[in-house]
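Here is one chain, start to finish.
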Amino acid sequence: KLSTWSMLRFGLAAAFALSFLSSPLFAWSEHAMLGYYGLITMLEIKNAQPVPAESLESFLQKEEAGLEKVLADIEEWNKNLVVYPVPTPEIAFKRTGIDHKRRFLEALRMDPESRTPLYLQLLPGQEAGGRPAFPVKDISVFKNPMWIAQTRFTTIREGEAVLPLEVVASACDEPDYGFDIGIWQDNNSPHSKKFNMGIQPFGNPNLEYGSQAPVHMGFYHEAGIIYLLAGFLKRTYPEMRVHQAYALSRFAFRTGHPYWGFRFMGWGLHYVQDLTQPYHARVLPGVGTLRMLWINFMDIIGRHEGKKNIVQLVSNRHLALENFQRRIMTRDLRNKDLNQPYWFALQNTEFDSKYNHFNKKYLRDVLTEESVSKSDELSREIMALMPVRLVDDPGVEFEEEKGSMDLLRTMETNQPGSVSQFANVLARLTGAAGVHSRNYVRAILATQDTYDSVN
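Its structure:
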C-alpha cells in the first residue's frame, strides 16, 4: 500500500507527464526566423564571408583525432550538471576510421539516425535562388512531421559557397527534426540502453516525438516542495546540448571548418531560444504552487477533474502562443512587412550588454529566471486577448477547434484590436530570444573560452 507521501509524488508526476503528451509542443515554430533576424544586426555574422559547405562525414573524417579529445572534454564538463547520468563507456568517441557519423551522434547521445544533409531552410517568402528543392522527408527522422510540411528546403552541394547567416538560421530549426528522439531507456530504441539516460522523466515515452521534451525544457525555478514531490523535474538537459554545440562550434572554427562552426552554432541556438519561451521554463505557467498541490491532493482522493482541466488549459495556451507566433511572423515575411514590434524587438541590440557574458550559469541564473518571471503575466495576457473557447475552456482541444486554423482572424472577430495588442506581448518574447541568441554567439566567437567563467 502506498504511503500518503508516495501518493502525492505519484499524483504530481502523473500531472506533469500528462501536460506534455497531448501533442508535439515546440517552444517556437520555425526557429530559422528567430535565428536569421535575431543575428542580422550582428555585423560579425551579417558581414561574414561565404563559407564552403561541407558534409558532416567529411568534417568528422578529417578531424577524428581531435574530436576524440573534444568529446571527452564535453563529457567531463557534463558531469558538473545538477543531475547527469554518465553514459556507458561504449559510446565514447574513439579514433577508428569508420562509421564516423553514427559514432559521433551516439557520443553526443543524439538519435544516430538523425539526418544531417547539406541543405538550407528557406524563410517564408524567400526565393530559392536557383537551388533545387530538398525533400522534407529527407530532413526529419519523424514518420509524419506535419509541422514542417509547408517549410521549404533547398539542396546545397559540397564545397558550394553559402552565407553564414543562412547556415546558422537553417541549423536553428534542426534539433526539432529528431536529435532527441528515442534517447531514454524506456523508449525501446536500438540506442536507448547504451545512452544510459534513465527512464524518461516526463512526457509519453511511447509517442514518437515524446522523448524530446526533457531536452528542450529546463525547469530550474520551481518551488522546493515541487522538487521534493517531483524530483524528476531536475532531469532536464538543454544545458548539455547548449554546451556540446558551443564546444563543437569553437573546435570547428579553430580547425578550419567554418561551415560546421556556424552549423553547430545554430544547433545550440535552438535550445537557447527554446528556453526564452516561458512554457519551456515553467511547468504550469499561471498556476501557483499551492494551487498545484491542492489540485494534486484532490486528484489523489479521487476528484480528477481539476488536474485534467488545468493540464488541458496550460496545453491549449502553450499551443495558442506557438500558433500565433508562427502565423503572424510567416504572414509578415510573405508580405515583406517587418514593420512590427516583434521584429524590432528581435533585432534590437540595445539591451545585449545588460547581461554578463554567456557562461555555464547563464541558462539557469539569467535566461530561465527571466523567462519564468514573465510566465504568469503571459498566461493572463493569453486569456485576456485570445478567444475564451480556445484558451480558457478545458473541454476544448486547441488543435481540434475550428478557430485555431485561422487564429489571427478568429481573434480579430472575437475582439477587435487583440492581434495588435498581442503583437506587443510577442515582442517581449522575441526580444529575449534575440538578446540571448546574440550573447551565445558572442561567447562562441570570443577569442578566449569564457563558458566556464562565473562573472
